Amino acid sequence: IVTIQKTCNNRIYYIKTYSLSNKQDTLFSQETVFEYTPKETISTTYEKSNDSYIPTNKTIETLKDNNIKLETQYEYKQNYWKPTAKQIYNYNASNQITEILYQIWKNNFWLSDYKRSFIYNENGSLLASTFSILQYKEWEILYQINYNYTNQLDNAFIEQTFWSETNKKYNDYISLYGNGNYPFVNC
Fold first, then answer.
1. What 8-state DSSP symbol labels residue 167?
2. What is the C-alpha separation between 7 and 13, in angstroms, rounded?
3. pLDDT tens for each residue of 58-116
4. Which of 41, 44, 35 is nearest to 62 (CA)?
5. Could you give the residue ranges of the DSSP H alpha helices within the chain?
């Protein structure tokens, strides 16, 4: 089921979609709000209980300049929506993602959990991506993937950094190779 509401100047204000699982035990709804360009999308999942559907989870995506700026997850507990996690997206001038910060909701505060960072060359090709975790109030790179490009990704290597119990830092390198038929892709 799709519902489209238009404003008086015939611009789309919001689009709502609903779908039901094959067994009809899960209902999913999504609402996208527009302000000339998409502004927000709310996706909600419901589970069937007797003859009605009870909300279980929802995700709100806040958009800016057609990019996801913020994505917040909630779970429905005791008749209210409790936040659980969120991702904050940052972009460069070319609209490429430079960082995704992941936070969790704990004891009524947002706590940074981990982040992914992306480095590009002057042509806009991805050079490296890192995965960092928060250790003792400082970001530590857990691993980094460096990309080697010709006109497609042919190989990459992963540099993993970890700490031992004696606080010594170790690096480990893993090489990955692709070929022209099955190149690696950035996911």
1. S
2. 6
3. 999 998 877 889 999 999 988 899 999 999 999 999 999 999 999 999 999 999 999 99
4. 41
5. none
